[in-house]
Design brief:
The complex is a heterodimer of chains A (319) and B (314). Chain A contains 8 helices and 10 strands. Chain A is an alpha+beta fold. The longest helix of chain A is centred in the C-terminal third of the chain and has 22 residues. The N and C termini of chain A lie far apart (55 Å). Chain B is built from 10 helices and no strands. Chain B has 314 residues and is mainly alpha-helical. The two termini of chain B are 41 Å apart. Chain B is globular, with a radius of gyration of 21 Å. Classes of the chains: A alpha+beta (319), B mainly alpha (314). Chains A and B meet through helix 3, helix 4, strand 6 and helix 8 of A and helix 1, helix 3, helix 4, helix 6 and helix 7 of B.
Chain lengths: 319, 314
């Protein structure tokens, strides 16, 4: 079961975890270029999974009053307002760009036309990035690697799920995650469920078992959140980026799609219109387990040094 | 002055999350190391006829170990499920490995301590079962001594095997810092509590540990890049500076103590306090490094700018 790429490098996670002929790996392709920031994904996720409220806050972060992914937020929509034209550096096409959203039809059935391109001065130097964040379901998942009870496990779909009845809330998965997704739920045990244990997106494992799409993908009105077989999603994403580049949106790039990256590629990957850190993602994440063999080597040497030091301490005449 | 690193973030919010741990865990880091070093001193004392040092070592080890277990269970979100730690043996999880290290070392340290307590009874009372317990003391104590070093060293892997910038970046040297700290603490306890004529090996271990810790801590900071910053600022900075002062003062005092019981005890106390400060300082620095996106973004962005992202190359 353990092979060369068990800790780092491209691998099929379900096969790696020991499943015999698992179904195709499932994941999300989140195309943030067509996200409208409606937060239907946040609501659907909360409803389906009975995720508690994460506070009724006004954070002043554009329309983001959720803040981040955490134990009580498994889908989080980020909003970034930028003083930049839609096509990033403004070097691309000046015509309004059809970003591929479903077409609007007027009452008499005609497709609504986009406004005519005006003078360059009318172009707004403003764009609004919106992105629905979620657990990445990494190929090499640090949370899963460090879980000491076996609560976190790899499903046959290649996703990572917490078994709520086993987790004892040690909290080790929390600092292990390179994206800062998973968290230990806080609150009153009498009124809130699963307090004290680790909580995160399950990629609606219960819905997958029933042949359904995850709740967020089901609810997304623009199909920004696309669910399917990961291989097919990656191909679709590559085509989408090429199309955006053709239209002059040179900022478009994929994040998490590369199986050679620090976490072996992610089950939930993204099309972004700016650098990852603008959205709150780590620019070059690495699974901490990659360095674990070396860490254990160093610790073994240190342990031997302590033993030798203790022996040496007793040499020589007393006292 | 090094200019402030420029980086972008999402409204200045953290990316990785700090651990949800509180004082329980750094306290455990200290007491685990103290227990390990004490068991080593006890084993050596037993083999070289130093009954006083042996007693301090064995009873110190079991006290520290008991405190460790209480702290670890108390830290859990669901303490009643602590037994689930024993569900699996998982080598990719330093916490699982540590659970089994402690489960191996613990019973032998306990048996050695039990034998030590029986030794406190008058000889005519050590009959039957109690006599057996007393006789098991030496073998149990020796096994505890041999299984103790991993207890002191694995906690560094526990912290380093995370995405917490200041912990992960320290992974090469942190095991030596923690082992040195464990030696200094247990040597300090030996100096504090054992009879003057038997204190020699405790002093040697304390000074050796203090030297190792100080040297490796310096090397560690140099290898950490920007993530060394949290070790110098804020609460962590105060703790690390206190740790250095107390450890160096304690080591110096140990060497100069000679026959002075008072000076030996003060040096021992300083070394113990210094070890506490080291563990809490490293812990706090890690937490601070996770809360500030700078320490996650800047090193990663630098790699990308240099054209050296972390990629699998076959």
């Amino acid at each position: 079961m353990t092979g060369r790429n068990s800790l780092f490098g491209p691998v099929d996670p379900a096969v790696e975890a020991g499943y015999h002929e698992p179904p195709p790996r499932k994941g999300f392709f989140t195309d943030t270029s067509i996200c409208i920031g409606c937060k239907a994904c946040e609501v659907a996720c909360k409803e389906w999974n009975e995720v508690p409220d994460d506070g009724f806050n006004f954070l002043g972060m554009s329309y983001d009053n959720t803040g981040s992914l955490n134990a009580d937020t498994w889908r989080h929509v980020a909003f970034i307002e930028q003083r930049k034209p839609v096509d990033g550096d403004g070097a691309g096409s000046r015509a309004p760009v059809d970003l591929g959203m479903p077409a609007r039809h007027s009452d008499n059935g005609h497709e609504v036309q986009l406004p005519e391109s005006g003078a360059d001065d009318d172009k707004p130097d403003f764009r609004w990035l919106m992105s629905s964040d979620v657990c990445k379901h990494c190929t090499h998942a640090a949370c899963l690697d460090v879980c000491p009870t076996g609560s976190l496990f790899r499903t046959e779909f290649g996703t990572v799920v917490v078994q709520e009845d086993i987790c004892n809330g040690c909290g080790y998965c929390v600092p292990a995650c390179p994206y800062g997704v998973i968290e230990r739920r806080k609150g009153d045990k009498a009124t809130k469920k699963n307090v004290g244990i680790a909580q995160k997106c399950t990629l609606c494992y219960d819905r997958l078992d029933a042949g359904q799409r995850p709740a967020c993908a089901q609810a997304c009105p623009t199909e920004s959140i696309q669910f399917g077989d990961l291989g097919e999603l990656r191909e679709r994403a590559n085509k989408r980026v090429a199309k955006l580049h053709e239209a002059g949106i040179m900022d478009a790039r994929l994040y998490g799609n590369d199986p050679n990256d620090g976490v072996g590629g992610t089950g939930a990957f993204f099309l972004l219109l700016d650098e990852p850190e603008v959205y709150g993602f780590p620019p070059d994440p690495v699974v901490t387990t990659r360095d674990l063999p070396h860490m254990f080597n160093r610790a073994t040497t240190a342990a031997l040094a302590l033993f030798a030091g203790a022996v040496i301490s007793f040499l020589g005449r007393r006292p | 002055m090094v200019p402030e690193a420029e980086f972008t973030s999402y409204y200045g919010r953290q990316i990785v999350k700090p651990s949800p741990w509180e004082a329980d865990i750094p306290a455990y880091l200290f007491s685990g190391g103290l227990a390990a070093g004490s068991s080593l001193l006890a084993a050596g004392a037993d083999l070289t006829g130093r009954a006083g040092l042996r007693r301090v070592g064995r009873l110190g080890a079991i006290s520290a170990l008991t405190f460790s277990m209480v702290a670890l269970v108390h830290d859990l979100g669901r303490p009643e499920r602590f037994v689930n730690m024993l569900r699996v043996v998982k080598v990719t999880s330093p916490m699982s490995v540590g659970t089994w290290i402690l489960s191996t070392y613990g019973p032998f340290a306990g048996a050695a301590a039990a034998a030590e307590l029986v030794e406190l009874l008058p000889p005519h009372r050590r009959t039957g079962l109690l006599g057996l317990v007393a006789r098991l003391g030496r073998p149990a104590g020796l096994i505890a001594g041999v299984t103790a070093p991993p207890v002191a060293a694995y906690t560094a892997v526990l912290l380093a095997d995370t995405s917490t910038p200041s912990w992960h970046a320290a992974y090469r040297e942190l095991p030596f810092v923690f082992v040195g700290s464990a030696a200094a603490a247990s040597g300090g306890l030996g100096m504090l509590a054992s009879p003057t004529r038997e204190v020699g090996p405790a002093r040697n271990l304390a000074v050796g540990g203090a030297v190792l810790e100080t040297i490796m801590e310096r090397r560690m900071e140099r290898s950490m890049g920007i993530t060394a910053e949290p070790l110098h600022t804020g609460k962590a900075g105060v703790l690390m500076r206190a740790a250095k002062s107390l450890t160096i003062a304690g080591a110096a005092g140990s060497l100069l103590a000679g026959r002075s019981r008072i000076l030996a005890a003060l040096s021992g106390a300083a070394l113990l306090a210094g070890s506490v400060c080291t563990r809490f300082g490293v812990f706090e620095a890690g937490q601070a490094s996770a809360r500030d996106p700078k320490y996650t973004v800047v090193p990663q962005r630098e790699r990308l700018e240099k054209g050296e992202p972390v990629r699998y190359s076959g």
